Amino acid sequence: MKNIEISRPKFEDIEIINQFFVTVLKHTFDRNDIGDLLEALNGEIIDKRKKLNEDFECNGESRFFLIAKDGEKVVGSIEYGPSSDLINSCTDGAVKDVVEIGTGFVHPAYQEKGLGNRLLNELFIELEKRGIEEFCFDSGYKSAQNLWVKKFGKPQYHLKDYWGEDADHMAWHLKVKDFINK
Ligand SMILES: CC(C)(COP(=O)(O)OP(=O)(O)OC[C@H]1O[C@@H](n2cnc3c(N)ncnc32)[C@H](O)[C@@H]1OP(=O)(O)O)[C@@H](O)C(=O)NCCC(=O)NCCS
User: Fold this and answer.
1) Shortest CA distance to 48 belongs to which of 108, 105, 93, 106?
2) How far is ligand 1, taken at its centre, from the CA of residue 151, in Å?
3) Alpha helix locations (H) across the chain?
4) What total of structural domains would you count in the chain?
5) Is residue 151 in contact with ligand 1, taking CB distance under 6 Å?
6) Does residue 8 line the site of ligand 1, with CB under 6 A?
7) CA of residue 121 to ligand 1 center, whole Å
8) What CATH number is given to the structural domain containing 174?
9) Of 177, 166, 139, whose CA–CA distance to 155 is shortest?
């Protein structure tokens, strides 16, 4: 894990980054027993691809990714950008002007070894540099919700059965200074 480098995405890596999104999303859907929701899976794959393109188009100004690589292999990602329609509808517009963190992905073979925390912290450092004090994020994956509750506390917004029976959606609105590690 020590040799993993976190940096801005390179345009020539666009295909391997998109392939990485597919790998993580398929694994996450299977793990959450929703691997049969092919339309939703494809929607997520397209959404991540679109966001990565936005970063290249604005040169990291309004959509900003960080990518972790182990040698030539993409093993992690994270980004922030304008808050999405989904989180805005779940929070009654409370985070309309707050940046949203998303695409927090770690390759299945590299999970639970601290890389997710490293990516988050690098992003917090960037937010602080840019004078951004607050962020929001959401999660509908049960497998990640436990982890986020442990790390960030109870969500301010908890929508029970949002995706169906026993499939909740959670959203957090937090301050960078409370979580950054300098
Ligand atoms: C969620 C994800 C990004 C976390 O990355 P990671 O590298 O596995 O996480 P880390 O090893 O850095 O651990 C982060 C924290 O979560 C905790 N954690 C890790 N796995 C956990 C689990 N299965 N259950 C509960 N807590 C867990 C760690 O102890 C750590 O807590 P700490 O900060 O209090 O020490 C990664 O697992 C992943 O890509 N999952 C699939 C995609 C996904 O669901 N992304 C999130 C979308 S909302």
Assistant:
1) 105
2) 9
3) 14-31, 38-58, 85-90, 115-129, 142-152
4) 1
5) yes
6) no
7) 13
8) 3.40.630.30
9) 139
C-alpha distance from residue 118 to each of 30, 109, 182 (Å): 25, 16, 11
Q: What is the pLDDT of residues 94-151, one digit of tens each?
A: 999 999 999 999 999 999 999 999 999 999 999 999 999 999 999 999 999 999 999 9
Q: What is the pTM of this model?
A: 0.96
SS3 content of the chain, % helix, strand, coil (to 5): 45, 25, 30
Six token digits for residue 6: 């976190």
The response to whether residue 2 sits with its C-beta less than 6 Å from ligand 1 reads no
28 lines ligand 1 (CB under 6 A): yes
Measured from the CA of 117, which atom of ligand 1 is nearest? 12
